[in-house]
Amino acid sequence: MKEKPALDAVDFASLFQLIMARGNDAVILFDKQGHVRYANPLAGKRLGYTNEALTQLQIFDLEEELNMVRYLQRWESAGTKKSKSWLVEWRLESGETQLFRIQGALFKNASPPLLCCFIPTAGSIQSLKTPTYQHLRHYQIGIWEWNIINGDFQM
């Protein structure tokens, strides 16, 4: 059996960008400080930003209610499982906000480590004005308050 040649770092980076550019999901990579390190074209389109503008942001610009403590909790939880799902309210370039169900996975072997967030196809995006969202929002706030009372700050 012939041994397959290994991909060097340059080939892998090119392959990664090609796959991310052609996939069906929007993809954003965040570093541990919350900076956007990469966004595929579909992510920019889905959020209304140019890719250049999107890569100048932090996750806190997209998700205004998120703070560093909660972001690091999200980072750690993504590192303990193969994939983690979150319901997030992200601000679009237009100033409007939309609800997304994102899938996150931590790439620990990347340098630096990166949180990879996949935003599924447009059909999974829900308006914040829907009754479903309003009930979810009240549920999340209620759980958050309950956890504070019990000393557990996870949402």
- How would you sum up the global shape? globular
Q: How many H/I helical runs?
A: 6
Q: Report the top-level CATH class of the domain at 20-126.
A: Alpha Beta
Question: Helix share of residues?
Answer: 25-40%
Q: What are the low-pLDDT stretches, counting only 5+ consecutive residues below 50?
A: 123-155
Class inferred from helices and paired strands = alpha+beta
Specify the CATH homologous superfamily of the domain at 20-126: PAS domain
Using only C-alpha atoms, the radius of gyration works out to 17 Å
Strand portion, in percent? 15-25%
Termini, distance in Å?
52 Å
Strand order, largest beta sheet? 2-1-5-4-3
Query: How are helices and strands ordered from N to C?
Result: HEEHHHHEEEH
Largest β-sheet summary: 5 strands, antiparallel
CATH topology of the domain at 20-126: Beta-Lactamase
Description:
The protein is 39% helix and 22% strand. With 155 residues, it is of the alpha+beta class. It has a domain at 20-126: 2-Layer Sandwich (Beta-Lactamase). The protein has a 5-stranded antiparallel β-sheet with strand order 2-1-5-4-3. A hairpin with a 5-residue loop joins strand 3 and strand 4. The protein starts with 8 loop residues before the first helix and ends in a 6-residue tail after the last helix. Residues 123-155 have low confidence and may be disordered.
